[in-house]
Design brief:
alpha+beta; 9-stranded antiparallel beta sheet; 8-stranded mixed beta sheet
């Protein structure tokens, strides 16, 4: 065993623990003195205060303590004095959550999870995307003298989330990284990393509400409920958590609408009050997801076929870049076109302009990898609802349990009362009873007949070994119902743009800037035309 005392002049300390391959960095708004007893296998790195202060943000203290937060504390356990670990991203939501918990009288320590892949994408960065986040997080903590710790979990993220995402795309499915990030990282690996610190709860800026039982009975369930803001509600992303995880969580924003959170950020004079909400997948930062997929899975040219006719329409970069229901990125004229099926073995993407046709039933699907928060499926299907994606929309539903294939775990066969055009294998379905989220699972197949009806000709072409025999893609014509009536064009230029659509078949990657610009302009004109048609 080794005892180490940190110099009082330091304001940051980094500790790497090889047992779970992570590093924790401590930031304090004031110089501190700290004694640690560490296993001899651990290594310690210290950094001077200047390294942290270089990118600091200064804030005015005028509004820090004159805002009455009492009406907003109902989801923050204000009548208790707790030791709370607060996940802080540098964004507005988690920052307001921290301030509410601090106002409720809890002893808070903020944690920033560092999971960026700088080494894998060093050529993509104009600036380190996590540095701004950490800078804002530290400034928020400095306002109320809350210590900030940085937990490095890159290895864990790759193992538990990213590798799974890559494998799912290779298999033609569309995974949901946000669900996995919550289950395996924020409330999985992170909880394991701080398990020795004896926090009462872990809190974050999620829009959800957890109702805890205030008894000493450990088997008494905690309940995951919808937030007050139904549009922003994030219970869908939290639906795969276990009861053990839920029992340790606090979501202070579950009782507050999003617009009110923004107003609180301004009233509290938070340094990040004007920051936009983050979009996309958290570990990618400013990298486009298509670039990430191309880097780790690669590209493989394949063909695009019309599902109903088997017509060869163009080429694509690999089936893993497309998901069922997708319409962006196909570069096909005469649309809108939608991805309706994928032949994984032969790298073929099937598309259709009849995706919303009434004879294409999409209301029965199977769900596996089920996780019920209570540990058991609901006894009755009455008043059961589900979400098949994040958002305010629910479906009334029913389901029956069936044994899985080859001795695998049971699956739920879910029945919806109406069609849904966006069901995609790999996505999650979350189940609800009234306001309570009771669990979720992964969609295995999309609808009744296990897929969009693809004609036999298209299936035969997909199986061809030498697809070079297909020649050039067919010339796609605009469907008559999509052509505006004669005389309805505003200018001759608009008519020319519509007539020229048939020349924009899915070409090879342009070899010059002139070709690239031409294709961009034609795609832009096509989008304008589609919007005009739907006005």
């Amino acid at each position: 065993m080794l005892r180490i005392a940190v110099n009082p002049s330091l304001t940051s300390l980094s500790i790497r623990n090889p047992n779970f391959r992570s590093c924790i960095s401590f930031f304090s708004p004031k110089p501190f003195s700290l004694s640690l007893i560490l296993n001899h296998r651990q290594s310690i790195n210290t950094a001077g205060a200047g390294a942290v202060a270089a990118n600091s943000i200064t804030t005015s203290p005028s509004n820090l303590f004159n805002v009455d937060l009492q009406p907003y504390l109902s989801c923050s356990m204000p009548n208790k004095r707790l030791k709370v670990a607060v996940l802080l991203s540098g964004g507005v939501d988690s920052s307001v959550a921290l301030r509410l918990l601090h106002a409720a009288g809890h002893s808070c320590t903020a944690f920033y999870l560092k999971i960026w892949f700088q080494e894998d994408f060093e050529n993509f960065w104009n600036e380190c995307p996590w540095e701004d986040d950490l800078k804002y997080a530290k400034a928020v903590c400095d306002q109320v003298d809350v210590p900030l710790e940085v937990v490095h979990l890159t290895d864990e993220y790759w193992k538990n989330v990213v590798s799974y995402i890559i494998e799912e795309y290779r298999c033609g499915r569309t995974p949901n990284p946000d669900v996995l990030c919550n289950t395996r990282m924020k409330f999985g690996a992170f909880m394991d990393a701080i398990s020795s610190m004896e926090f009462d709860y872990v809190a974050s800026g999620h829009y959800a509400n957890i109702v805890h039982s205030f008894t000493d009975q450990m088997d008494k369930p905690s309940v995951l409920e919808l937030s007050k803001d139904m549009v922003k509600d994030q219970t869908y992303f939290l639906s795969h958590l276990s009861l053990i995880q839920l029992k340790r969580l606090l979501f202070p924003l579950g009782c507050i609408p999003k617009d009110e959170v923004r107003r609180l950020a301004s009233k509290l004079d938070l340094p990040n009050r004007d920051r936009k909400d983050s979009q996309g997948i958290c570990f990618l930062g400013k990298i486009k997801f298509s670039e990430f997929v191309a880097r780790h899975i690669g590209e493989k040219e394949g063909i695009i076929l019309e599902a109903e006719t088997g017509d060869f329409l163009g080429k694509h970069r690999g089936f893993w870049f497309y998901t069922i229901g997708q319409r962006q990125g196909l570069r096909l004229p005469g649309g809108p076109w939608y991805v309706v099926e994928k032949d994984i073995k032969n790298n073929v993407v099937f598309v259709s302009r009849n995706y919303f046709s009434s004879d294409k039933r999409r209301r029965l699907f199977r769900v596996g990898s089920l996780k019920w928060i209570s540990g058991e499926p609901p006894e009755q299907n009455s008043q059961l609802q589900c979400k098949v994606r994040h958002g305010p929309g629910f479906y009334h539903c029913s389901f029956t349990m069936e044994p899985g294939e080859d001795g695998q775990e049971d699956v739920a066969v879910v029945q919806l009362p109406e069609d849904d055009q966006g069901l995609a294998a790999g996505q999650f379905t979350a189940f609800y009873q009234q306001r309570s989220c009771i669990g979720s699972g992964v969609i295995l197949e999309s609808w009744d007949d296990q897929g969009f009806p693809v004609c036999e000709k298209a299936l035969e072409i997909a199986r061809m070994e030498d697809k070079s025999k297909l020649g050039k893609p067919v010339k796609i014509k605009v469907r008559p119902e999509n052509i505006p009536p004669k005389g309805s064009y505003q200018t001759d230029r608009e008519r020319e743009s519509v007539d020229s659509q048939t020349a924009i078949t899915n070409q090879k990657i342009p070899s010059s800037k002139l070709e690239s610009t031409s294709i961009f302009i034609m795609n832009w004109l096509q989008k304008i035309r589609e919007k005009w048609l739907h006005m």
